[in-house]
Amino acid sequence: MKPLLIFGLRGTLIERLYTSRIPNGMPTPDLTVGITKVWLRPHLLSTLRALQEHCNLAVWSSTTGRNTNPLVNAVFNFHSINPSLSTNDTKAPDSAETPSRFRKRGGKTSSGGKTGDAPAGLEQPLKFEFIWSREHTSIDEFRRRNSVVNIDAHATVKDLSRVFQQFPEIAQPSNTIIIDDTPSKCKLQADNYIWLDTCEELAIQDEHGMKLLQSFIMEKILPAKDVRGLLPVRISTARTDPKI
What we know:
The protein is α/β, with parallel strands linked by helices.
């Protein structure tokens, strides 16, 4: 059975900010989705394409389906590739409902030339086995009751047992990995967790995270019979720690 890699979205694969909250020093955004600016993690699409050759891929966001679907649709051109596939709760919006614009890091639109990480639709299509959102998570009661920052008030937990139950043909404890920038979200199955350092705000400029992740998956995970013998692991911008 192939490894199943389940990725978080914001902070793991992309950054999304309202214009009024963009910090000084941010690079030119890659996308405009609705009233937000979106940045893709460097080497995101090329890494996912490489991993797709050997693994099944999925997305599990902590944002609502209403926000998740337009992002996935815009970043991966997903609606045109799998028009019938969406979260279980919300139909993915048509492109007319999801105003977006893919841009190079230099500010020019991608339609005028080739970039190092072009939209997925221009090269090998990316296929996600499922796209889940906040509606599929549980409430993190501890973080919410003891919140010290605003984000704690909306803290969630991703319980992989739900994945095992719904997708037994591709998801078992021995082959499933959740990749996220927030450890508390994955605390129920820590032995299936890769902590990928966040790409929020200025950290979006990190050039190493996705390539380090790709190397770890290819060199360590693919030969393994049970991923739980290798995890949890932290992938940082500077190194890969054997164990958290």
